[in-house]
Design goal:
Layout lengths: L6 E3 H7 L6 H8 L1 H9 L7 E6 L6 E8 H13 L3 H23 L6 H32 L4 H4 L3 H6 L18
Antiparallel strand pairs: 1-3, 2-3
Helix pairs in contact: 4-5, 5-6
Length: about 180
């Protein structure tokens, strides 16, 4: 944008979050409760039409864009609802932030933008692949489950849901606290 503001195309944002390209424009009509919840988180939903040059053809196209803040709120909302695409986006973004922070902290040579984009794509795809693998494993566990298994093998329940909430359920993930 001429003002220096960065905006996100509503079509690209919808696709990135795993929806159809028209999803965002239909949000108010198809999912008013979701829109209201987003607005409760600070989502403004103000679309701005922007002219953008296209690499693949001559001229410019009009696209509808939302603010960077609205996109962030939407991604966070979707992640809290378990949207695997939003979670993959956040995981890949966090990996990029960590790389940049470590480079800055230790005075290493900054990572080239092209390399960052490639790593982001790899991290994003790897997250989605892991989620698919976990889903398949959960389905296999459920298919093998016999009546009463949860009574004799209570550890199967966290495996099926992927959630652990205490030391007793997963002691390897908790470190001993010193007094």
């Amino acid at each position: 944008m001429p003002s220096g503001e960065h905006r996100v195309g509503s079509t690209g944002a919808s696709l990135l979050l795993g929806y159809s390209k028209e999803y965002f424009s239909r949000l108010a009509f198809k999912a008013p409760k979701q829109l209201k919840a987003l607005q409760g988180e600070g989502f403004q939903g103000c679309l701005v039409e922007t002219l953008t040059e296209r690499d693949d053809r001559r001229g410019a196209s009009k696209i509808k864009t939302l603010s960077k803040t609205d996109f962030k709120v939407w991604v966070e909302y979707e992640a809290t609802k378990g949207n695997k695409h939003a979670l993959a986006l956040m995981a890949a973004s966090f990996s990029e932030v960590l790389d940049d922070r470590f480079v800055a902290a230790f005075g290493h040579t900054p990572i080239a933008d092209k390399d960052k984009l490639e790593k982001f794509d790899v991290d994003y795809g790897a997250y989605l692949e892991r989620e698919e693998l976990y889903r398949e494993l959960r389905e296999e566990l459920e298919a093998l489950e016999l009546p009463g298994d949860k009574l004799y093998y209570p550890f199967l329940e966290p495996l099926a849901t992927g959630h652990y909430s205490s030391y007793a359920e997963d002691p390897d993930c908790y470190q001993a606290q010193s007094i």
